[in-house]
Amino acid sequence: MRLVLVADTHLPSRAKEIPDEVWAAVEAADVVVHAGDWTSPPALDAFEARSARLVACWGNNDGDELRARLPEVARVELGGLRFAVIHETGDARGRERRCDEWFGPASDEPADVVVFGHSHIPWDSTTPGGVRLLNPGSPTDRRRQPVATFLTADVAGGVLTVGRHELPPRVR
User: Fold this and answer.
1) Least crowded by CB within 10 Å, which of 17, 71, 78, 108?
2) What pLDDT score was predicted for residue 95?
3) Which of 126, 129, 160 is nearest to 33 (CA)?
4) Is residue 61 part of a domain?
């Protein structure tokens, strides 16, 4: 199963459009995971129209209409792995501990993989409790990062293989 992981698209406040490379990956994916900060309902509509299946949550910059359509935490099982999708996990310092409390084996709803956004900083780590933490960065707003990014992943038989994609600089 092929996944595309994105977050922090911020349309149209930070970017006017999604890069073609991202749309091509979205259209080829079995599942698209979006970890919030759409900032406009048309952005969600566009992903829904182009995705075979969308798993998504709202972010801190998403208004009432988006929050009415999306959960704060989206949960799904894909390829034998339990995913949780949330926008914010707090400061990088202490992230693994917090995510183990929220999503680890002893939590009420354990997850094997947590996809998050908010920082626009790509992240891939594993907590002491074994939860894989993934932040795809942002495909449209690199902020302090050298390039904009998104992730793809293949999941089969409970094994997740992740690839990071860097996008060329865009002329605005």
Assistant:
1) 108
2) 96
3) 160
4) yes
- The 10s digit of each residue's pLDDT in 19-51 is 999 999 999 999 999 999 999 999 999 999 999
Average pLDDT, stretch 74-80?
Answer: 97
Residue 119 lies in a domain: yes
**Cα–Cα distance, 30 to 73 (Å, whole number):** 20
Q: Is the pTM of this model over 0.70?
A: yes
Nearest to 135 by CA among 160, 155, 162, 110: 162
Q: Spell out where 40-122 has E strands.
A: 54-56, 73-78, 81-86, 113-116
CATH of the domain at 79: 3.60.21.10
| Domain containing residue 115 | 2-167
Structure confidence by residue, pLDDT tens digits, 137-147: 999 999 889 99
CA angle, 20 then 23 then 26, to 5°:
155
Q: Has residue 159 been placed in a domain?
A: yes
- Structure token digits, residue 128: 């002491």
Distance (Å, whole) CA 31 – CA 105: 25
172 in any annotated domain: no
